[in-house]
Write a structure and sequence with these properties.
19% strand; alpha+beta
Length: 221
Amino acid sequence: MALAVAFLLGGLIGLERQYRQRMAGLRTNVLVAIGAAAFAAIGMRLLGAEGGTRIISYVVSGIGFLGAGVIMKDGGAVRGLNTAATLWCSAAVGALAGAGLAVEAAILTAFVLAGNTLLRPVVNYINRKPIEQTSEAEYRLHAVCDPEAVADVRDLMVQELENLNYPVSEIETLSDNDDVVELAAILVPTTADPKELDHVVVALERHAAIHSATWTVGTLG
């Protein structure tokens, strides 16, 4: 029963991650959840609550190594933190299920899904707020596309931006796997119009090879 609960709840978390084409998707989150549930259940069965607590403490430290494997440093940016945190939460869901706390596991799953979905518009809104500082703003146009269409999408991003007189400094590959590739076109430091960038996003998303597009703004220091 514990494994079934962990499988179901881990699957819900994994489905959201898979839909957004993250590195740790459906299978990874399910395996983390049922693995944590199995270890917790073994401890509970052999040594009772004390054994379960002891095993879960090892799961907490062990999942840290797994999470570290998905965190990558790209220049001055660190990527994969949200994926690692989600895996950590999937392990917690599994541990709760393995300890017989199915209701608590379901509640935690709901909070994880809310954190990864409901907070996304808030994060995007904050990231797009104009930066009222003396430092220069760095605008990035992101696009997630099919691997075989990378070259065409690169050209398309440059073309759409240059049509609005926004020169591109460089285009980075943020993530690359068998299913999708995420590209980021970095604009030459300038003041950009959010409405114009929104129009570029809409134009990019019309193309079948592009799964999603967005833009962000940060500071150069």
